[in-house]
User: Fold this.
Amino acid sequence: MTIIFTSKVFEIICWIVIILIKVLYSVTIFFKCKYDNKRIRNVITFLSMPFPIITGLICITKYKKSKKDAFIILITLGLYLFSIIAVGVIYNSSSQGKYYDKEGNAYTYVTDIVFTDNYGNKYTFNFDKTGYDYLYINGTDECLNANLCYLDSNGYIHYDDDVSITAKDETCCVDNDGSLYYPAKFTTFNKDGTINYSYNSANFKYDKFGNAYTHDYIPYYDKNNNKYIYSFNSETNKGFYTNYSTKEMLDNEYCFVDEIGYFVYDNEHSFIKQESIENVRAYTDSLGNIYYWASGVSWNKNGELLDSFGNIIK
Assistant:
């Protein structure tokens, strides 16, 4: 007969071991001490279960028969305490979550998982440097924005440099051609190399067209359908919106969206800030058209503009 050692079975075995050693300790207390009467012996033996250290010290100092018996009590007490600690450590170690890569190699921490691409390159997080923000290539300083790193259906890394991958639902993401992908930051592998992924749709971010994403930096679009992608330079502490086609970088301080959500850049820095609209930085141009600071707004799944508190901008 084969016994399957699940975590629950192992927990039961741990408790059995502790109870057996407790009984051994109580038996030692019962036979290796010299008591004034049976009543005291029974009380001390009973108390050795819930209060092993206190009763052990009492027996060694007051009721021991000899130094040898006191030594035996001390050794049994030490064995009892050691068993509790050892069983606890073993149980915690065995029940600790294991993480795997696509080859089935096990890791203690999710940050240690190694991803690979079709060319054999290896990608890992470096938590000491940037946490989950970047995946480093082959142990070098070359890295990719982890928000745009996805796993294809075979478990290989794919970089979404044009931010075209959107969330299909809570179980997967999809590219323009219908290929399925899974965000590397939120994906693990099962022991057999299969993909394990889910994402709460309540945390989706949306663009102007209602497309959902699993990261914050969703693309912006102007009226000519040019795509703009936000990035932040930690050295200069400045944000930029980059035109994906031309690679032109625009200072986010002068990047806006109009009232229907299209991206607009204030080339002449002439927009005038308005004070009357709450929860959003609103500006007007010389013709009185209203614009909202691009980094201060977002969209819901219906493509409606939201302010910094998630309220629909009227």
